[in-house]
Design brief:
Structural class: mainly beta
CATH superfamily of one domain: Jelly Rolls
Largest sheet: 10 strands, antiparallel
CATH class of one domain: Mainly Beta
Protein name: Cupin domain-containing protein
Radius of gyration: 15 Å
Strand content: over 45%
Number of helices: 0
Helix content: under 10%
InterPro entries: ChrR-like_cupin_dom, RmlC-like_jellyroll, RmlC_Cupin_sf
Shape: globular
Order of helices and strands: EEEEEEEEEE
CATH topology of one domain: Jelly Rolls
CATH architecture of one domain: Sandwich
Length: 120
């Protein structure tokens, strides 16, 4: 059988986790295509905080488990979906922890998200 057209299955207990970009987070990279688009999981441990930031291109996030607070007043619960792009900034925090599935159309390490100053 030709491996070129074979699908890819990653079992939960075989996923590799590494420290995330932000303190108290972990990431498991699931797939990257030749254009640098990525699918990955993010674990935010209880008390995690991701400062106000912008994305160079589109981010899509689905909350699998837990809850998040965006920009101090938007609550994201299990099953909720978020999309954000350039000039659609947000910060993220969780009291209890969370697990997110994320798809971004850029490589998170090579094209860093840009932290910005929060405006009052």
């Amino acid at each position: 059988m030709d491996n070129v057209n074979k699908h890819k299955l990653i079992k939960w207990d075989e996923m590799k986790w590494e420290p995330g970009i932000y303190e108290n987070t972990e990431m498991s990279y699931l797939y990257e295509d030749e254009q640098g688009r990525l699918c990955f999981l993010v674990k935010l441990h209880p008390g995690s905080f991701i400062p106000m930031h912008d994305h160079p291109r589109r981010e899509f996030a689905y909350l699998i488990k837990g809850d998040l607070i965006l920009n101090e007043d938007e609550v994201m619960k299990e099953g909720d979906f978020l999309t954000a792009g350039l000039a659609e900034s947000h910060d993220v925090r969780t009291e209890n922890g969370a697990l997110l599935y994320v798809f971004i159309d850029y490589h998170v390490i090579r094209q860093q998200i840009v932290e910005i100053e929060a405006t009052s």
